[in-house]
């Protein structure tokens, strides 16, 4: 695997290891769901929350499958498993798209079927558990990169951007797809 992608996968690990205990386990994803639920003042049984939880479950189940099935993964194991998983359509087209879609529906608070800069910022702050965005790219630049065939950052475009972020070296380090996975620098 190319070193650049490996570095990127390490950043995904850091974003998901929400208690920073050096391993990713299901409780880390639950904390991500809780962050978003709280940031958007959603009820825990809201359909959008359920959808997000199921999306993270799908992502984690696939990673576990590619990583040998353990309940927790070190950074090294996670990076290796992610590197193998991205070659599988079941992972990118379903698991990663699932997270993108679930987060898009929560973040698109004005319901206009595209992400605006303020909506993206609120989402990034929720996912990364921060008060301000300190990323190395402006969110406007990330949105321009993330535009899909329709010319806007809609649900499909977020999913496609996330796939590019995980598979292609020909993208900036900070993209909409990376941001929804918590990678902001
Ligand atoms: Ca952890
Ligand atoms: Ca919107």
Topology overview:
Blueprint: H1 3-16, E1 23-25, H2 26-39, H3 47-67, E2 72-74, H4 75-85, H5 89-107, H6 117-128, H7 139-146, H8 155-167, H9 176-180
Antiparallel strand pairs: 1-2
Bound molecules: calcium ion (CA) (2 copies).
One calcium ion binds next to loops.
Question: Any overview of this molecule?
Answer:
The structure is a single chain. The chain is mainly α and 185 residues long. It has one domain (3-180): EF-hand (Recoverin, domain 1), CATH 1.10.238. It contains 9 helices and 2 strands; from the N terminus they run H-E-H-H-E-H-H-H-H-H-H. Helix 1 crosses helix 4 (75-85) and helix 2 crosses helix 6. Bound molecules: calcium ion (2 copies).
Keyword list:
185 residues, 9 helices, binds calcium ion, Recoverin, domain 1, 63% helix, two-stranded antiparallel ribbon
**CATH architecture grouping:** Orthogonal Bundle
CATH homologous superfamily identity: EF-hand
**Mean pLDDT, all residues:** 95
Largest sheet: 2 strands, antiparallel
Radius of gyration: 15 Å
Strand content: under 5%
- How do the SSEs run, as a string of H and E? HEHHEHHHHHH
Question: Could you give a quick summary of the protein structure above?
Answer:
The protein is mainly α. It has one domain: Recoverin, domain 1, CATH 1.10.238.10. 63% of the residues lie in helices and 3% in strands.
